Amino acid sequence: MAAVKERVFSGVQPTGNLHLGNYLGAIKRFVDLQAKYDCLYCVVDLHAITVWQEPEELTKNIREVTAAFLACGIDPKKQIVFNQSQVAEHAELAWIFNCVARMGWLNRMTQFKEKAGKDKENASVGLFAYPNLMAADILVYRATHVPVGEDQKQHLELARDIAQKFNNDFAAQIAKLGLQGHFFPLTEPLISGPATRVMSLRDGTKKMSKSDASDYSRINLTDSADDIAQKVRKARTDPEPLPTTEAALETRPEADNLVGIYAALADTTRADVLKEFGGAQFSRFKEALTELSVAKLSPIGSEMKRLAQHPKHIDAILADGSSRARAIAAETMKHVKDIVGFVRA
Ligand code: ATP
Ligand code: MG
Question: Which residue, of 2, 20, 211, 320, has the greatest Cβ tally within 10 A?
Answer without folding.
Answer: 20
